[in-house]
């Protein structure tokens, strides 16, 4: 399967899409734990050329164990192109807002214009539905997930389909791994 990259450069997320507040802890000058970063995450990207499909990359690490002694640096404040998966020993944390399929995958006549984005990653992924509903589509089965449901995605081919009338918001943690 080809390298999967849903990120679309040059487009801004649609007004009204989910904004994610990112808080990061660290130590103050006296060694006490504190919040060292508190902001609306600036790393919201458009997915699949659809401004209502928003991918907010919150944090990533490139090695495990993570180096929490290193100076604080925003891991996405770089000119490197975005990638879906983590590095071999790294992790990725992101939030996705997926619009209803009918709003971006089909034209006014109901004809599919963008197929499901089947893909794999070299990782184990934890997908948590925060709001709305989504279908996890696999080679041999499909399952509807709603708020509070969690999918442990073990590197297998999959896609997401929002068959409802409302956006679905999911959180994802991807940890470097191997394909099955």
UniProtKB/TrEMBL annotation:
Pfam families: Cupin_2 (PF07883). InterPro entries: Cupin_2, OryJ/VirC-like, RmlC-like_jellyroll, RmlC_Cupin_sf. Signal peptide: none annotated. Residues 65-84 are annotated as: Disordered. CDD domains: cupin_BLL6423-like. Residues 113-173 form the Cupin type-2 domain. This is Cupin domain-containing protein. It comes from Amycolatopsis acidicola.
């Amino acid at each position: 399967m080809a390298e999967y990259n849903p990120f679309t450069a040059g487009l801004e997320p649609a007004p009204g899409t989910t904004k994610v507040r990112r808080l990061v802890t660290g130590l103050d000058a006296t060694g006490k734990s504190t919040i060292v970063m508190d902001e609306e995450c600036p790393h919201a990207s458009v997915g699949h050329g659809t401004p209502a499909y928003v991918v907010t990359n919150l944090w990533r690490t490139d090695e495990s164990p993570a180096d929490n002694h290193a100076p604080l640096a925003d891991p996405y404040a770089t000119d490197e192109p975005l990638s879906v998966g983590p590095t071999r020993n790294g992790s990725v944390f992101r939030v996705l807002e997926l619009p209803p399929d009918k709003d971006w995958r089909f034209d006014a006549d109901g004809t599919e214009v963008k197929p499901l984005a089947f893909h794999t990653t070299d990782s184990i992924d934890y997908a948590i539905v925060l709001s709305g509903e989504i279908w996890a589509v696999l080679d041999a089965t499909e399952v509807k997930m709603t708020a509070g449901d969690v999918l442990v995605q073990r590197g297998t081919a999959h896609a997401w389909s929002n068959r409802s009338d409302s956006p679905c918001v999911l959180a994802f943690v991807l940890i470097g791994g191997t394909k099955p």
